[in-house]
Amino acid sequence: MNTSAFDAQHPGLAPAGSAAEPATVRLAIRIGYDGTAYNGWALQPGLPTVQGVLEAALAMLIRRDIRTVVAGRTDAGVHARNQIAHFDLTPTEVAGLARGANIEPGFALLRRLRGVLGREHGAILVHDVWIAPDGFDARFSALWRRYSYRIADGPARFDPLTRAFTMWHKTDLDVDLLNAEASSLLGRHDFLSFCKPREHATTIRTLTEFEFDRDAEGIIVAHLKADAFCHNMVRAMIGACIKVGDGREVPGWVAMRLEEAVRDSRIMLADPRALVLEEVAYPLDAHEIARRAELTRTRRTPHEITKDLPELRGIDL
Predict the structure, then answer these.
(1) pLDDT tens-digit profile of 249-270?
(2) Reported confidence tier of residue 11, pLDDT bands at 50, 70, 90
(3) Are 251 and 241 in contact (CB under 8 A)?
(4) Cβ-Cβ contacts under 8 Å for 248 (sequence gap 6 or more)
(5) Which side of the chain, N or C, has fewer Cβ within a 10 Å radius?
(6) How far is 32 from 253, CA to CA, in rounded Å?
(7) Angle (deg, nearest 10), helices 233-245 and 175-183
(8) What is the phi/psi pair of residue 145, to 5°?
């Protein structure tokens, strides 16, 4: 919906900026959400999504349609603690955010967004809003994304109060086996066996962290970090490791699947409700923001694949 269409549906509301004025000011936003009631991040006609709710709130405040770009598109039921997105406003729109008060525009929008999103009853919370540095892109400027995944293995560990963000697995899992399988995926590989390919997109990724441990309550928590994750990649890798951890597949099966580079029905997607996007990292130097985005847009090629990780340890990707 453009400004004219928005005005037609909302008579009496004047547009915040001129329709002819270019949107040259990029704002970044950090949000968290409980994905239980949403059909993922991305807009889907007739379905509740996090992007849909956020963009509706922005449209109400800015009085025109606003399109957001996100660091990582989460699936239906998946949560985020620190998701990052960006959107563009005109200088007039930015100047009007504070409504004449002597406060920073990002903080003004933060307060107003929190007010509008109160109707979500805390399921979507805006943490920060700020004017982004030149060249910033929430998706392409990111250095890495980090996810966590919670598993309660065995009925003795099932807790109805945490069921919205914990996978229930009926049998015990061997954490040592899980970690052995997970370690075989570290490095830069073609993860086709664990991805749902998108048209014109590569499935080559660099995975720098993947490990399982038990917390104080006996819940298994997986930690994963990579430069990026393709569609279904985290849930597919977790599901594959679980099939070895509970004895349905032999040790080394995950590495064999990786080598085959074939996606088929043998890969099980783990329950989405236990997956949380924990953090997205960006270059600290503002001058590196645009350069990182340019590098990320360069399509990865097969010759970049490596089976070894040592040369990647300790560096930001």
Answers:
(1) 999 999 999 999 998 999 999 9
(2) very low
(3) no
(4) none
(5) N
(6) 35
(7) 130
(8) -120, 145
Question: Is 272 within 8 Å of 75 (Cβ atoms)?
Answer: yes
226 phi/psi in degrees, rounded to 5: -155, 165
- Residue type at position 312: L
pLDDT at 96 exceeding the cut of 70 = yes
- For the chain, state the CA radius of gyration: 21
Show the CA angle centred on residue 251, arms to residues 145 and 312, nearest 5°: 35
261's tokens: 């580079």
pLDDT tens string 187-217 = 999 999 999 888 778 999 999 999 999 999 9
The structure tokens 């560990």 sit at: 157
Q: CA 257, CA 259: separation in Å to the nearest integer?
A: 5
Name the active-site residue from 34, 75, 190, 227.
75
- What's the CA gap between 99 and 107, in Å, rounded? 12
**CA gap 232, 234 in Å, rounded:** 6
Judged against a pLDDT cut of 90, whether residue 167 lies above it is answered with: yes
pLDDT value of residue 86: 98
Task: For residue 43, count CB atoms less than 10 angstroms from its CB and return exposed for 0-12, middle for 13-18, buried for 19 or more.
Answer: middle
CA dist 140 → 37, 144, 228, 295, 298 (Å): 28, 10, 10, 8, 10
Query: Which residue in the block uniquely carries the two structure tokens 């928590």?
Result: 221
Closest CA to 249 of 192, 174, 196: 174
Contact 32, 81 (CB under 8 A): yes
Q: What is the pLDDT of residue 1?
A: 47
Q: Do 245 and 178 contact (CB within 8 A), yes or no? A: yes
> Residue 57 is encoded by which pair of tokens?
């709130």
